[in-house]
Amino acid sequence: MSTPFDAYAEDYDGDFTLSLIGSLMRARVWRHLDAAFKPGQRVLELSCGTGADAIHLANRGVRVHATDAAARMVKATRRKVQQNALTDRVSVQPMPMEEVSSLAGGCFDGAFSNFGGLNCVAGRRLLAADLACVLPPGATLLVCVMGPVVPWEWLWFLARLAPRKAFRRMTLELINPGHINSGGVEWRGLKVYYPSISVLREEFAPHFECRRVAALGALVPPPYTENLTSKAAALVRALDRLERALESLPPLPWLADHYLMELHRLNA
Fold this sequence. Notes:
With 268 residues, this protein is α/β, with parallel strands linked by helices. The chain has ten helices and nine strands. It is 35% helix and 18% strand. α1 (9-16) packs across α2 (20-36). It is globular, with a radius of gyration of 18 Å.
């Protein structure tokens, strides 16, 4: 399979794992993953990217079945798994998120998707129903989603005289709340969607209960500001500590570059 993310595979870790902001954001997600999934459990990862999260969980004794639609992302994940001698804990499969129903009966204890994988799925209601067939009652589903209202993004792109980029995520929010970018935003031939917290909660509600929402990048600037903000590393780290303490306090999750939603599978 080939996707726009294949071309991004080599730079992905530099932006979302090794950079200052990327490492802080990923560490925040890991804190939630560590609380949700215990050693010995088997979890499903959707849109695994280059495998950083799978490696982290596997090092803690969690078994991970990592999937991604991008062939180069899958290749990078397999390489990391082999380099870290974790083939007994991490299995890797090329698979778009829309085909998750093929894993029904896979005996998973939970699932997660990090850094916007869900933003590339138009049929999220169908995905919720498919995941309900894959996960048992009570299982945890963690999704890290790019939100529609990001003041940091407004300031960044308005300062660069790019208003269309500044407000690309929330084109329809002011005139039709709850139906944000229903047609998606074009990116390298792919449609990207920016569902609000209320929309995503409602889409998953027939099968999952939302237990918690946390901000990821409300006070901390987005990763694409790294070239500038890395010069103020102490300030960025201070903002991260403050955001970590306040991450679930409204309105921070609603104003973040990403929000992390914890869902629990309801009884059938």
